[in-house]
Amino acid sequence: MRTPILARQTSAIRALQDLSLRNDLSDYGNAAVRQALSSALLMQCIGEIVTGKTMSGTSPREHGMALVADLEAFVIRHADQAIPLDTLEGRFGISRRHITRLFREGTGMSIGEFQQRTRYENACRLLAETDLPIGEVAFRVGSESGAALARAVRRIGGHSPSALRTTMARSVKK
Protein backbone atom coordinates (compact mmCIF):
# COMPACT_ATOMS: atom_id res chain seq x y z
CA MET A 1 0.00 0.00 0.00
CA ARG A 2 1.34 3.41 -0.88
CA THR A 3 -0.89 5.54 1.31
CA PRO A 4 -1.41 5.06 5.00
CA ILE A 5 -4.82 3.83 6.10
CA LEU A 6 -6.33 4.28 9.50
CA ALA A 7 -8.64 1.40 10.38
CA ARG A 8 -11.22 1.95 13.07
CA GLN A 9 -10.36 0.07 16.23
CA THR A 10 -13.41 -2.10 16.66
CA SER A 11 -14.12 -4.03 19.84
CA ALA A 12 -12.90 -7.23 18.13
CA ILE A 13 -9.61 -5.60 17.18
CA ARG A 14 -9.18 -4.13 20.66
CA ALA A 15 -9.87 -7.50 22.32
CA LEU A 16 -7.45 -9.35 20.05
CA GLN A 17 -4.81 -6.68 20.57
CA ASP A 18 -5.20 -6.82 24.35
CA LEU A 19 -5.00 -10.63 24.36
CA SER A 20 -1.95 -10.73 22.09
CA LEU A 21 -0.07 -8.29 24.33
CA ARG A 22 -0.83 -9.98 27.66
CA ASN A 23 2.14 -11.03 29.70
CA ASP A 24 0.35 -13.61 31.84
CA LEU A 25 0.00 -16.33 29.22
CA SER A 26 1.34 -19.63 30.53
CA ASP A 27 4.65 -20.98 29.30
CA TYR A 28 2.92 -23.95 27.69
CA GLY A 29 2.00 -22.97 24.15
CA ASN A 30 2.97 -19.35 24.75
CA ALA A 31 4.59 -18.81 21.33
CA ALA A 32 1.84 -20.72 19.50
CA VAL A 33 -0.91 -18.80 21.30
CA ARG A 34 0.74 -15.45 20.56
CA GLN A 35 1.18 -16.45 16.89
CA ALA A 36 -2.48 -17.44 16.60
CA LEU A 37 -3.65 -14.22 18.27
CA SER A 38 -1.38 -12.11 16.06
CA SER A 39 -2.70 -13.87 12.96
CA ALA A 40 -6.30 -13.34 14.08
CA LEU A 41 -5.56 -9.66 14.74
CA LEU A 42 -4.00 -9.24 11.31
CA MET A 43 -6.95 -10.96 9.61
CA GLN A 44 -9.43 -8.80 11.53
CA CYS A 45 -7.58 -5.62 10.44
CA ILE A 46 -7.45 -6.79 6.83
CA GLY A 47 -11.17 -7.59 7.02
CA GLU A 48 -11.89 -4.05 8.22
CA ILE A 49 -9.88 -2.61 5.32
CA VAL A 50 -11.47 -4.90 2.71
CA THR A 51 -15.00 -4.04 3.87
CA GLY A 52 -14.15 -0.35 3.68
CA LYS A 53 -14.29 0.38 7.39
CA THR A 54 -11.37 2.78 7.26
CA MET A 55 -10.94 6.48 7.68
CA SER A 56 -9.92 7.67 4.24
CA GLY A 57 -7.66 10.63 3.58
CA THR A 58 -6.15 10.63 7.04
CA SER A 59 -3.22 12.86 7.80
CA PRO A 60 -0.33 12.13 10.16
CA ARG A 61 -2.06 14.42 12.69
CA GLU A 62 -5.24 12.34 12.51
CA HIS A 63 -3.15 9.20 13.05
CA GLY A 64 -1.58 10.87 16.08
CA MET A 65 -4.94 11.85 17.54
CA ALA A 66 -6.25 8.30 17.02
CA LEU A 67 -3.21 7.08 18.96
CA VAL A 68 -3.95 9.61 21.73
CA ALA A 69 -7.52 8.30 21.95
CA ASP A 70 -6.16 4.74 22.30
CA LEU A 71 -3.68 5.91 24.94
CA GLU A 72 -6.46 7.64 26.89
CA ALA A 73 -8.60 4.49 26.80
CA PHE A 74 -5.63 2.38 27.97
CA VAL A 75 -4.81 4.75 30.84
CA ILE A 76 -8.47 4.89 31.92
CA ARG A 77 -8.69 1.06 31.93
CA HIS A 78 -5.45 0.80 33.94
CA ALA A 79 -5.70 3.96 36.06
CA ASP A 80 -5.38 1.97 39.27
CA GLN A 81 -1.97 0.60 38.22
CA ALA A 82 1.44 2.14 37.72
CA ILE A 83 1.95 2.58 33.98
CA PRO A 84 5.63 3.06 33.14
CA LEU A 85 6.40 4.76 29.83
CA ASP A 86 8.31 1.60 28.84
CA THR A 87 5.02 -0.31 29.06
CA LEU A 88 3.31 2.20 26.76
CA GLU A 89 6.27 2.10 24.38
CA GLY A 90 6.03 -1.68 24.13
CA ARG A 91 2.23 -1.71 23.96
CA PHE A 92 1.88 0.91 21.23
CA GLY A 93 5.19 0.43 19.40
CA ILE A 94 6.13 4.09 19.57
CA SER A 95 9.00 5.75 21.41
CA ARG A 96 8.44 7.17 24.87
CA ARG A 97 9.32 10.66 23.67
CA HIS A 98 6.85 10.52 20.78
CA ILE A 99 4.07 9.12 23.00
CA THR A 100 4.52 11.86 25.61
CA ARG A 101 4.70 14.60 22.97
CA LEU A 102 1.57 13.39 21.14
CA PHE A 103 -0.36 12.92 24.37
CA ARG A 104 0.43 16.42 25.65
CA GLU A 105 -0.40 17.89 22.23
CA GLY A 106 -3.72 16.02 22.10
CA THR A 107 -4.90 16.46 25.68
CA GLY A 108 -3.02 19.44 27.08
CA MET A 109 -1.64 17.37 29.96
CA SER A 110 0.97 14.72 30.61
CA ILE A 111 0.11 11.04 30.84
CA GLY A 112 0.76 11.16 34.59
CA GLU A 113 -1.52 14.18 35.03
CA PHE A 114 -4.23 12.44 33.01
CA GLN A 115 -3.88 9.32 35.16
CA GLN A 116 -4.11 11.40 38.35
CA ARG A 117 -7.22 13.17 37.01
CA THR A 118 -8.78 9.79 36.17
CA ARG A 119 -7.97 8.47 39.66
CA TYR A 120 -9.51 11.62 41.15
CA GLU A 121 -12.71 11.15 39.14
CA ASN A 122 -12.89 7.47 40.13
CA ALA A 123 -12.33 8.39 43.80
CA CYS A 124 -15.07 11.04 43.64
CA ARG A 125 -17.47 8.50 42.19
CA LEU A 126 -16.62 5.90 44.87
CA LEU A 127 -16.85 8.47 47.67
CA ALA A 128 -20.25 9.63 46.42
CA GLU A 129 -21.73 6.21 45.70
CA THR A 130 -20.34 4.04 48.50
CA ASP A 131 -19.63 4.08 52.22
CA LEU A 132 -16.18 2.56 51.75
CA PRO A 133 -13.47 3.87 54.08
CA ILE A 134 -11.13 6.39 52.47
CA GLY A 135 -8.23 3.93 52.70
CA GLU A 136 -10.23 1.37 50.70
CA VAL A 137 -11.18 3.99 48.11
CA ALA A 138 -7.48 4.89 47.84
CA PHE A 139 -6.58 1.24 47.28
CA ARG A 140 -9.26 0.79 44.61
CA VAL A 141 -8.23 3.84 42.60
CA GLY A 142 -4.51 3.03 42.77
CA SER A 143 -3.36 5.50 45.41
CA GLU A 144 -0.63 4.31 47.74
CA SER A 145 -2.54 5.30 50.90
CA GLY A 146 -5.49 7.25 52.24
CA ALA A 147 -3.14 10.15 52.99
CA ALA A 148 -1.84 10.14 49.41
CA LEU A 149 -5.42 10.16 48.12
CA ALA A 150 -6.32 13.03 50.45
CA ARG A 151 -3.34 15.07 49.16
CA ALA A 152 -4.33 14.39 45.55
CA VAL A 153 -7.99 15.27 46.17
CA ARG A 154 -6.96 18.52 47.88
CA ARG A 155 -4.52 19.37 45.08
CA ILE A 156 -6.96 18.63 42.24
CA GLY A 157 -10.34 19.45 43.77
CA GLY A 158 -9.46 21.79 46.62
CA HIS A 159 -11.23 19.78 49.33
CA SER A 160 -10.75 16.71 51.51
CA PRO A 161 -12.22 13.30 50.65
CA SER A 162 -14.57 13.45 53.66
CA ALA A 163 -15.77 16.95 52.70
CA LEU A 164 -16.34 15.71 49.17
CA ARG A 165 -18.33 12.76 50.48
CA THR A 166 -20.47 15.05 52.66
CA THR A 167 -21.05 17.48 49.79
CA MET A 168 -21.95 14.70 47.37
CA ALA A 169 -24.29 13.08 49.91
CA ARG A 170 -26.13 16.40 50.38
CA SER A 171 -26.51 16.93 46.64
CA VAL A 172 -27.91 13.40 46.24
CA LYS A 173 -30.50 13.94 49.01
CA LYS A 174 -31.88 17.12 47.40
Question: In words, what does this structure look like?
Answer:
With 174 residues, this protein is mostly helical. Among the domains are: 1-56; 114-173, Arc Repressor Mutant, subunit A (Orthogonal Bundle), CATH 1.10.10.60. It is 70% helix and 2% strand. It is built from 9 helices and 2 strands, in the order βααβααααααα. The chain has a two-stranded antiparallel ribbon. The model has no long low-confidence stretch (mean pLDDT 81).
Short description:
This protein is mainly α and 174 residues long. The protein has helices at residues 11-20, 30-50, 60-77, 85-92, 96-107, 111-129, 134-141, 146-157, 161-173, and strands at 6-7, 54-55.
**How large a portion of the residues is in β-strands, by DSSP E?**
under 5%
CATH topology of the domain at 114-173: Arc Repressor Mutant, subunit A
How many strands appear in the DSSP assignment? 2
Average pLDDT across residues? 81
Largest sheet: 2 strands, antiparallel
What is the CATH C level class of the domain at 114-173, in words?
Mainly Alpha
Number of helices: 9
Globular, elongated, flat, extended or rod-shaped: what is the shape?
elongated
